[in-house]
Design goal:
The chain is an all-alpha fold and 104 residues long. It is 54% helix and 0% strand. It has two domains: 55 residues, no CATH class; 48 residues. The chain has three helices and no strands.
Length: 104
């Protein structure tokens, strides 16, 4: 996710409440998911600021559909994303870390 991303409440919650009315714990989990997700990001930011963790994220945003039908297009995008993330990751690694060798 891009820096500064904040997950919003699920807009499908009214429909989920109807469909899953027999599962109140599931509905509660969906209703509060964005709160837990955002808290995790906040905790990760604190850890990164203290040097307890580091985050690897792409330096640019990618337009990728959830349900891509064109497999060639999907493969091209996935390869491009992988290349950018790998490049960013190698630059973000703390001193002393080495690039892992790929298996032959």
């Amino acid at each position: 996710m891009p820096a500064g991303y904040v997950k919003k409440p699920n807009s499908m919650l009214p429909l989920i409440k109807i469909i899953y009315r027999k599962y109140p714990k599931f509905i509660e989990a969906v209703r509060t998911r964005h709160i837990r997700y955002n808290q995790c990001l906040k905790t990760l930011d604190e850890w990164c600021n203290r040097g307890m963790a580091f985050r690897i994220r792409p330096s640019e945003s990618f337009d990728i559909d959830r349900l891509e039908k064109d497999m060639y297009r999907h493969y091209k995008k996935a390869t491009m994303v992988y290349t950018v993330i790998e490049s960013n990751a190698l630059g973000a690694l703390p001193q002393g870390f080495r690039r892992p060798r790929h298996a032959p």
